[in-house]
Amino acid sequence: MHARRHTKVTPDWHRWIGEALASGNAPADLLATMKEHQFDERVARDAIADAMFGGTAPPPAAGSVQASEFRSRLAPGHVIRAPDRDIRVLVRVARPVIAVLDNVLDGAECDALMAMARSRLARSAVVSPDSGSNTVMDIRTSEGAYFHRAENELVQRIDARTAAIMQLTEEHGEGLQVMRYGVGGEYMPHYDYFAPDQKGSAPHIASGGQRVSTLIMYLDDVEAGGETIFPRIDFSYVPRKGQGLYFEYAAADGSLDPLSLHGGAPVVHGEKWIVTKWMRERAFAG
Ligand SMILES: O=C(O)CCC(=O)C(=O)O
Ligand SMILES: [Fe+2]
Question: Does ligand 1 have an atom closer than 6 angstroms to the CB of 216?
Fold first, then answer.
């Protein structure tokens, strides 16, 4: 029989969460500790998310951004025409701006991206050459493979296609990032924009400016779990090979949308593979 799980977070635990986050601990590590202490997972997740982002989305203050100012950059209509492909819109959400897109990548492109990333992931899992020590690099960094803009023909083709979809030129785009999650792998809720009040954001923003939009492309179906979730609006997308999930978080006046909080739910069975394109306010050297 399972021990009963705690469903209430005491003031002491709230304080512990706040202090652990403030001293730079990863939210996933806090979650693991709370689970070891028999907290119900959902309760622990909510308490951590509340400490990071506040309990609810802040209500719009007088004179602040209205929903209508978060107007999608995407072309209207049911089909978006990229230079080499027609992309069908399956779902649109007004706020935060979200669109589910079909047929962004074909099956062969998905397979080729996974193969390319696999060889890079394998390389990144070897002993660190610059430390000279025997420590294997952080498992989390070895889960991602980065491809410079236009690094090869396939990457170039996808850079051009995503730019056309996202209505910005390729020079606004960061290099493609392929991510692989195994069973239990997740990406806790976060914002893709650089937190304006954090010192660490300044060097990113200095070149290219703020991030404004994201296109996550799914390289394979996932057997169970691994949904992309927007907890503030209770929206959940189930990964489907070749589809894309597009979202935006910066209005024309620079306001950022707190409803864009999102994450990758834990994979329950199988693997999850995605490739992500992030777009910046301005063209930059990449
Ligand atoms: O894994 C997911 O579904 C979310 C990924 C994500 O948030 C990102 O790449 O910025
Ligand atoms: Fe993200």
Answer: yes
Rounded distance from Cα 179 to ligand 1 centre (Å): 9
> What distance in Å separates the CA atoms of residue 94 and residue 77, rounded to the nearest whole number?
14
Which one of 38, 55, 72 terminates a domain?
A: 55
Q: What is the mean pLDDT of each run of 10 residues along the chain (286 residues)?
A: 78 87 82 90 83 62 60 95 96 97 98 94 54 40 81 98 98 96 88 89 91 98 97 97 97 93 94 96 93
What pLDDT shows up at residue 122?
Answer: 66
The 8-class DSSP code of residue 94 comes to: T
Ligand 2 centre distance from Cα of residue 189 (Å): 8
Q: How many CB atoms lie within 10 A of CB 166?
A: 25
264 lines ligand 1 (CB under 6 A): yes
Query: Are 127 and 6 in the same domain?
Result: no
User: What is the domain extent for residue 111?
Assistant: 61-280
Rounded distance from Cα 1 to ligand 2 centre (Å): 38
Binding site membership of 20 for ligand 1 (Cβ less than 6 Å): no
Q: Which atom of ligand 1 is nearest to the CA of 192?
A: 10
Q: Where are the beta strands (DSSP E) in the chain?
A: 79-82, 85-93, 98-102, 144-147, 176-181, 187-190, 211-218, 224-225, 228-230, 235-237, 244-248, 262-264, 267-269, 272-280
**What is the pLDDT at residue 3?**
64
Residue nearest to atom 1 of ligand 1 (CA): 264
Which ligand has its closest atom nearest to the C-alpha of 177?
Answer: 1
